[in-house]
Amino acid sequence: MIGIRIAKGGCRGREAYRFPLAQVSKKLGRYFSISSQKSQRPDLKHESFEHTEMKYSNSPVWAWNEWDPLEEVIVGRVEGATVPPLTIEVKANTNEKHWNFFNQNGGSHFPAEHMEKARKEIENMCDILRKEGVVVRRPDPIDFVEKFQTPDFTSSGLYSAMPRDILMVVGDEIIEAPMAWRSRFFEYRAYRSLIKDYFRQGASWTTAPKPQMSDDLYDQDYPMKSVQDRHRLAADGKFVTTEFEPCFDAADFIRAGRDVFAQRSQVTNYMGIEWMRRHLEGKGIRVHTLSFKDPNPMHIDATFNIIGPGLVLSNPDRPCLQIDMFRKAGWKIVHPPTPLVPDEHPLWMSSKWLSMNVLMLDPKRVLVEEEEKTTIAMFESLGIECIRVPLRYANSLGGGFHCWTCDVRRKGTLESYF
């Protein structure tokens, strides 16, 4: 049922499904016939793997979902964070009220006083995770202010603050995402020491095809003069990234055992989702595309955050057009309360909905921003203990607890929740 409902979900769901067919089918050949055939399957079972048991592993890398007991995590770094140039892909993902900030500061470090407060918050979060029994690993420190050049473009870097954007663990495999912002082209370098260490200990390591990020990857005429423009374009299934080559951020995928859910966004295209679908099908994992009423889709975990078996936080401002399939499967849909972030607090690369961008330590414990009192009350009503941690200044770099981390190892097994 899930394939049919995703393909024929709501109005935007249908549009999203048809969009690549009309635009790039001649270039991709069999890709679309394969993709459409797979999506029309009448149920969620994967015959080859239905009865395969994936037992808890001694691999250093092991996670199948977002909520099993957390044993090891990568936490990002504030150090070296650099304001990206206001290129077209950055402009498409940021609020117009911050465009002057990017124009004036692109290629320079973020404000030092603000970053020092953010650094202290992240160090405190690491200490709290350690006290909860979680092993904390960190990327290498890199100063991203240095400019670089490829045959296709020149840019400065961004940061190594958000490991969720670039790394995704599925089972005993760590997948390195290709990214879509030019300023993030070399971001993987900060994580290579860690990944090589996991690989030497027995983990699988896959790097997705690296995009050229030439002008062909971006719609150079993408109009975005106002919020109204963004709503109209998103409703029409149009994005700043084209289907020139696969691109995706790992944060546009969220795991629920045998089912992984993705969204087409400003940084993740259909080719990227298809690459992930083909790559994971050998593990018996099904990748499904969801769509949302979101004028600026980028990263699924502040829109649709799965926090337990059959339990999902669904952003009330960005309703999921395929939500009925979760209801029919017996899932509990929780709409988080309005965030309490003050209007004057700078959020240069995100919305206030980082309040729902939480990290589950296990099904009954969660890291949550200490000032989000109504969100804390929501979790407590669900019987989930809240570990209250300050993260307001770190939020300004574009992420909550989920974004600032990559769960490397969780104690659990591969299961189906549908």
Automatic annotation (TrEMBL):
Protein's UniProt keywords contain Mitochondrion: yes
Keywords from the UniProt entry: Membrane, Mitochondrion, Mitochondrion inner membrane, Transferase, Transit peptide
Gene Ontology BP terms: creatine biosynthetic process
Entry GO CC: mitochondrial inner membrane; mitochondrial intermembrane space
Subcellular location: Mitochondrion inner membrane
Active site per the UniProt annotation: D249, H299, C403
Keyword Magnesium among UniProt keywords: no
Reaction(s) the record says it catalyses: L-arginine + glycine = guanidinoacetate + L-ornithine
InterPro entries linked to this entry: AmidinoTrfase (IPR033195)
CDD domains recorded: amidinotransferase_AGAT-like
Broad class of the protein's primary localization: mitochondrion
EC number: 2.1.4.1
Top-level taxon in the UniProt lineage: Eukaryota
The protein's annotated pathway: Amine and polyamine biosynthesis; creatine biosynthesis; creatine from L-arginine and glycine: step 1/2
GO molecular function, one term: glycine amidinotransferase activity
Signal peptide: none
Family, as annotated: Belongs to the amidinotransferase family.
Subunit structure of this chain's protein: Homodimer.
Its job: Catalyzes the biosynthesis of guanidinoacetate, the immediate precursor of creatine. Creatine plays a vital role in energy metabolism in muscle tissues. May play a role in embryonic and central nervous system development.
Protein's name according to its UniProt entry: Glycine amidinotransferase
Protein species of origin: Dimorphilus gyrociliatus
